Amino acid sequence: MSKATRRTSDTLVGAMSPELRPLTIGILAIITCAAFEAMAVVTAMPSVARELSGESSYGLAFSMYLTASLLGTVVAGSWCDRKGPRPALAVGMALMILGLLAAGAAPDFWLVTVGRAVSGLGGGFMIVAVYVVIGRSFPQRAQPVVFGWLAAAWVLPALIGPVVAGFVTEQFGWRWVFLGVAPVVLAAVLIVWPKTSKLGPIASVETGSARTRTLRGFALAGGVFAAQWAVVRLADTEKPDAGTVTGLTLLAAAGVVVVLLVLPALLPKGTLVLARGLPSIIATRGLVNIAFFGTEAFIPLMLVSSRDLSPGTAGLTLSAGALGWSAGSFVQARVTFARQWLLVAGSSILSMSLGLFALATALEAPLWVLAVVWGLSGFAMGMTLSSTSVLVLKLSAQSEQGRNSAALQISDQLGGVVGTAGAGALFALLHDDGNPGHVPTFVAIWLALWVSTAAGIVSGLRGAGSSDAGPSSTPSKSMEGTVLA
Question: Is 435 helix (H, G, I), strand (E, B) or coil?
Answer without folding.
Answer: strand
